[in-house]
Amino acid sequence: MSGNSFGTAFRFTTWGESHGPEIGCVIDGTPPGVALAESDIQHFLDRRRPGQSRFTTQRREPDQVRIVSGVFEGVTSGTPLALIIENQDARSKDYGDIKDKFRPAHADYTYWAKYGLRDYRGGGRSSARETAMRVAAGAVARKVLGETIAIRGSLVQIGDRTIDRDRFDWQEVDRNPFWCGDAAAAAEWADYLDEIRKAGSSVGAVVEVVAQGAPAGLGEPVYDRLDADLAKAMMSINAVKGVEVGAGMAAAAMTGEESADEMRIGADGGVDFLSNNAGGILGGISSGQDVVVRFAVKPTSSILQPRRTVNRFGEETEIVTKGRHDPCVGIRAVPVGEAMMACVLADHLLRHHGQCGAGARGWDRKDG
């Protein structure tokens, strides 16, 4: 199987299956001398791991990461970093009844059509279990970026229920199980998702990820635009079906006057933007404003409600998926989206330094 690597200057490759003995990743391109310990990575893995509330799968995985190469005396050596997590709570017997059937909306059929076989135990390689290693890679990327770039994610919609932007507060994100910046919306979602879970169904969500403090100049036009790489990064996450940057799809309904992010000279002599419809990216290059990306996650395909399907013998049948599944997989996608944002920015920061040097180009700017 090809296509298991992401990035250019900062590049990681993940491996492993949902019910295999281990999952892991290898990271190339981390500069030498970056202070790195397992605890730096574990913090972010703990945010993603399953079983932390009744709204996520009850699979109990500690997700304890081990650094097995690339760190010497507490700092990165510049050699490839290798990270490993052991799978400890796989229950393969839960999938015995569906080993010959294809779950609608899942990768079961396409994996079988492409490879002539599939690992039916929890989805194998197509499982969201793989995203744990993206989060690990993202933790390393954050160390490369340093403390001046802050990356935060929030759930802004579950099903057809959205947040109220006037109530949004980043401080609320860590106070509820939905990573939601609107406390009132999170309380409503709890009742709503309880109904979905008890009905044996699932629902989709929208995640927003914001990077503050990214410098102007990141991005490689024409084909390696920053927004193009961010779109690929988010679309590569399991169950993601749509990505938008800044105003996104809403930009189609704007006039040129409304869409234009007007500029003035700030008190410090830098450039101030009066709005951010572009999501911090112009011509594929970061402008110095907040980089804003949203992505839509479809409902979990493994549900208890019977669905019509076919099996690998060419017969029509029905399927009910037992086991432990997220009623809304979008919840745990929040730290995954943050990680992919970090990996893309770290990649482009290293590429920018390689081409242009670490010094600033153009005017100094102030975040608008």
Q: Approximately what portion of the residues adopt beta-strand conformation?
A: 15-25%
How would you spell out the order of helices and strands? EEEHEEEEHHEEHEHEHEEEEEEEH
> How are strands sequenced across the largest beta sheet?
1-2-3-7-4
- Biggest β-sheet, characterized? 5 strands, antiparallel
Rg, Cα atoms, Å: 21 Å
Q: What would the average pLDDT be, to the nearest integer?
A: 92
Helix content: 10-25%
Shape from CA axes?
globular
Number of helices: 7
Give the termini distance in whole angstroms: 44 Å
The tally of strands reads 18
Q: Which segments are poorly predicted (pLDDT under 50) over 5 or more consecutive residues?
A: 360-368
Quick structural overview:
The chain has 368 residues and is an alpha+beta fold. It has helices spanning 38-48, 108-115, 131-145, 183-198, 226-235, 256-259, 333-356; strands spanning 5-6, 11-16, 22-28, 65-69, 71-72, 75-76, 81-86, 150-158, 161-162, 205-212, 240-245, 263-265, 271-273, 281-282, 285-286, 291-297, 307-310, 316-319. It starts with a strand and ends in a 12-residue tail after the last helix.
Would you give an account of this structure?
The chain is an alpha+beta fold and 368 residues long. Helices cover 24% and strands 22% of the residues. It is built from 7 helices and 18 strands. It has helices spanning 38-48, 108-115, 131-145, 183-198, 226-235, 256-259, 333-356, and strands at residues 5-6, 11-16, 22-28, 65-69, 71-72, 75-76, 81-86, 150-158, 161-162, 205-212, 240-245, 263-265, 271-273, 281-282, 285-286, 291-297, 307-310, 316-319. The strands form 6 sheets. The chain has a 5-stranded antiparallel β-sheet with strand order 1-2-3-7-4, with helices on one face. Helix 1 (38-48) packs across helix 3 (131-145) and helix 1 crosses helix 7 (333-356). The longest helix is centred in the last third of the chain and has 24 residues, at 333-356.
